[in-house]
Amino acid sequence: MTAAPVVSVRGLRVYYGTLRGTVRAVDGVSLDIGAGEVLGLVGESGCGKSTLGRGILGLLPDGAASKGDVIYGGRNLVGMSEKDLRRLRGPDLGLIFQEPMTRLDPLMRIEDQFQETLEQHEPGLSAREVRKRSLETLGRMGIPPTRFRQYPHEFSGGMRQRIMIALALVLRPKLLIADEPTTSLDVIVEAQILRILADLRRNFDTALLLITHNLGIVAEACDRVAVMYAGKIVEEGLAGDVFAEPAHPYTRELLRSTISLDTKELHSIPGAPPNLITPPPGCRFHPRCPDAMAVCPTKEPVEQHLAHERRVFCWLRGPEQAIPAGGTSPLEREEIAVAEEA
Amino acid sequence: MQRKPELAGGHASPSAHDSALVSIRGLKTYYSIRGSFAQRLIGREAGHVKAVDDVSLDLGRGEVLGLVGESGSGKTTLGRTLLGLVPATEGSVVFDGREIVGLRDRDLRELRRKMQVVFQDPHASLNPAMTIEQSVGHPLEIHKIGTSDERRRRVAETLDTVGLSPPEQFMVKYPSDLSGGQKQRAVIARAIILNPVLLVADEPVSMLDMSVRAKILELMLELKREFDLTYLYITHDLATAKFFCDRIAIMYLGRIVEIGPSRAIYENPRHPYTKALLRAIPEPDPRRKVPRDLPRGEVPDAARPPLGCSFHPRCGQAFEVCGWETRDLRDLLEQRWAHQVEEQYEAERALFDDISVLDSSAVHARLRTGRGVPGAALAGLLGSIRDENPSEPFWTGVEQVATETDAVDIRWREPLSPRATGVGDVQVECHLYDDAALEEAARRREEGSPHTTVGGTGTPTRQGAPEGSA
Fold it and tell me: Which residue among B3, B170, B294 places its CB closest to the CB of A192?
């Protein structure tokens, strides 16, 4: 990335309290997203990827607290008042959810939903401009003007999701977070939506964080990818590089366990992701890692930079001087039972 | 690690086996749509959805058949009809020599010991108030099998078989204590505890994380070998189906559009829909980019299916006989307008009066022009749309455009319904593989002489043919 990033996340933590203890859903995450760039965020369910996406926008679950920095436009969103945050959401920060039907008002025509959104955030616009902007954005998503006055239930699932995306884009946000935007859609419609999202960078110059559990989607639609495990980023780099040659064992195992058309042999990662109340010490992946070494449960891995802006958190990548004597010998541990799984 | 089991013998058709375990013939399952309150008062139905529309297939003993389709394809209804959970409207389902269609509930219950089902959502499949022992042992209780001690032993054995061991540790737990993968193992344990011969698995892994899917599929393959099971694997996911299935049936809007051995389907897909599905699967391959040549639109409303071949509105290869009609013109216009600036759209829209005449499905439409607009102007617009993209398949279906003073009269060619045709070792329901349909299309192409004007103001029409040529 050459230009200054649209958003810069540094050491972000999002913790929330439950009856069983404090859940460290996001635990010290740093990442940048540039203008016109698509960053994919992948991980298994419960790894904290959705909480991270919401945490960046300051949308926290009840009883949650966040720490660290989310620098956007020279200001830190962490600790910002709810009033200031609300002003930024929409024109600056957008969010696309998984279930479009639950986010569109079923009693409002599409036209009215756009009008309300635009009037709220850009009160200076004339009625003509509101209409023009709305139709133009909808058109880019393939929604014809003839259907502008219809209600959400009159549209198919894929069209509703495109309307949702248009509703977020009509305000021309600089940062857009899309949380599993295609999960409930069929594969052809999913590909249609991905094509639209991949084209966003050209048309809108938006910085996009695309959260998904589907590695195939990342490979096809993203410039860079960040892999998350148990509240932490374990590897980040150019999508092509990471997929061609994963640097972290978790990334490698996740890729191997993905069932694709090329799958000749089934593969799975033993064990299950840890709970985030009492995560394992040291590297959180060490209990499941086929390459774990003696050092892994004792010290948390440090960020290592590889070629092409790749960074990875794994003792296999060093630094050697930080590994205690004998730390590179294979880790001895007990067998993981078959049923210990997610 | 599990390898894909080699197929025993030629699986071209299950008739290669001694006899089919399940034989489905001409099966139709229709759901009636309830209309308005007034319509219901006078006992009238607003129509029906053909969820399963004339399906015939065999399921061989020990075979894994993948039933693949998008949501709304009817794949789940087909599975449920096969289990007798949904009454068939017409046709026959013979399971292990017995006809299921029309069977009384009591007889069905007896048969259900032999056929079990695993649903998609493991969280919703287990009663949250029952322990795992109670849930998994429930079928034994329903069918009054064994003493309570014997049942307990059987539950423990079965839990062990599905990998929930030590069983004692899981028997006392409630579903909420289990992870998604563990719950699905418990659901599978409950399904196999009666020693069934057929297991219908409806999206058994699609709600699970990638890292768990492989484990559940492995378990199902092991069980199949150990207990000689036959599977109907219902899924939208062609990638897991490829690994898992001996044969694949592709469903679209209630019909099986392609069926054959897995290898043939994946290596050489014939139906344009199968091709599109395969192309659309996101692959974790860094060299691949988002595919551009995707079918447009979505699965249409099954209550109002397209004429002719149901896939034709989305098909890039559709031609004269595939069933072009009014609604396709509306889609064409709307897609054009979606990408225009507002002024241009307003100008073009003003040429039309009411375009909702295109909403009812027909092969004839009389499009009135907007106030004060001559029919020739509207015909001119249609002509220029066609000239901009002459390869658009829609135009192959237009038989005649007649210009009137204040209207344009459009007639489409008669649709043909596709028939199942054998191509190699697969069956495809697509006109592209049907010689009769191709000949008919060629005949229509020749008959359609351009520049025939019919009754209008003399403006040349795009495509004309004598009345009743179809």
Answer: B294
d(CA B283, CA A262): 9
Looking at beta carbons, which residues of chain B come within 8 Å of A339? 163-165, 170, 182, 185
The fold of the B14-114+196-280 domain, in CATH, is: Rossmann fold (3.40.50)
The ranges assigned to domains in chain B are 14-114+196-280, 134-193, 312-447
Distance, in angstroms, between B95 CA and closest chain A CA? 31
Q: Give the closest residue to A342 by CA, choosing from B131, B158, B205, B169.
A: B205
Helical packing angle, A187-204 and B272-280, nearest 10°:
50
Element (H, E) at A79: none
Q: Which residues of A77-100 are buried (b: 16+ CB within 10 A; e: fewer)?
A: bbebeeeeeeebbbebbbbbbbeb
Chain A contacts of B289, Cβ < 8 Å? 220
| DSSP string across B5-55 | PPP-S--S-GGGSSSEEEEEEEEEEEEEPP--HHHHHTT----EEEEEEEE
**Which tokens go with B175?**
């579903």
The DSSP string of B154-191 is HHHHHHHHTT--SHHHHHT--GGGS-HHHHHHHHHHHH
Whether residue B286 and residue A221 make contact (CB cut-off 8 A), yes or no, is no
Q: Compute the distance between CA of residue B245 and CA of residue B17 in angstroms, rounded to an integer.
A: 16
The count of other CB atoms within 10 Å of the CB of residue A1 is: 13
- Burial of residue B439 (CB within 10 Å: 0-12, 13-18, 19+) is exposed
In this structure, are residues A151 and A182 in contact, taking their beta carbons and an 8 Å threshold?
no
Residue type, B450: P
Q: pTM for this structure?
A: 0.88
- Does the pLDDT at position B454 exceed 50? no
Residue B262 backbone dihedrals phi, psi, to 5 degrees = -50, -45
Chain B residue with the nearest C-alpha to that of A194: B290
Q: Is the dihedral of CA A74, A77, A81, A86 positive or negative?
A: positive
Calculate helix-pair angle for B180-192, B148-161, nearest 10 degrees: 130
Sheet with A207-212, strands from edge to edge, namely A93-96, A175-179, A207-212, A38-42, A224-229, A232-238, A310-313, A303-306
Question: Would you say B187 and B126 are in contact if contact means Cβ atoms under 8 Å apart?
Answer: yes
Chain B, residues 49-88, CB within 8 A of chain A, namely 70-71
Q: How far apart are CA A315 and CA B46, in angstroms?
A: 66
Separation between Cα atoms, residue B333 and residue B312, nearest integer Å = 17
| Pairwise CB contact (< 8 Å): B345 & A135 | yes
Nearest to B3 among A215, A221, A265 (CB): A265
Sign of CA dihedral B125, B129, B135, B139: negative
User: Which residue of B294, B339, B340 is in closest CB contact with A191?
Assistant: B294
What residues of B are in contact with residue A187 (Cβ under 8 Å)?
70, 236-238, 277, 280-281
pLDDT in tens, A160-204: 888 998 888 898 899 999 998 887 788 888 888 888 888 877 777
Residue of B nearest to A136 (CA): B341
Provide the ipTM: 0.88
Cβ-based contacts of B338 with chain A (< 8 Å): 138-139, 142-145
B186-241 tens-digit pLDDT? 999 999 999 999 999 999 988 888 888 888 999 999 999 999 999 999 999 999 99
Distance of alpha carbon A117 from alpha carbon B338, whole angstroms = 21
Cβ atoms of B448 and B397 within 8 Å: the answer is: no
Strands B20-32 and B48-60: antiparallel
CA distances from B115 to B80, B95, B195 (A): 11, 9, 9
* Residue B131 to residue B126: CA distance in whole angstroms: 9
Sign of the torsion formed by the C-alpha atoms of B131, B202, A192 and A130: negative
CB count within 10 Å of CB A45 equals: 17
DSSP B3: B
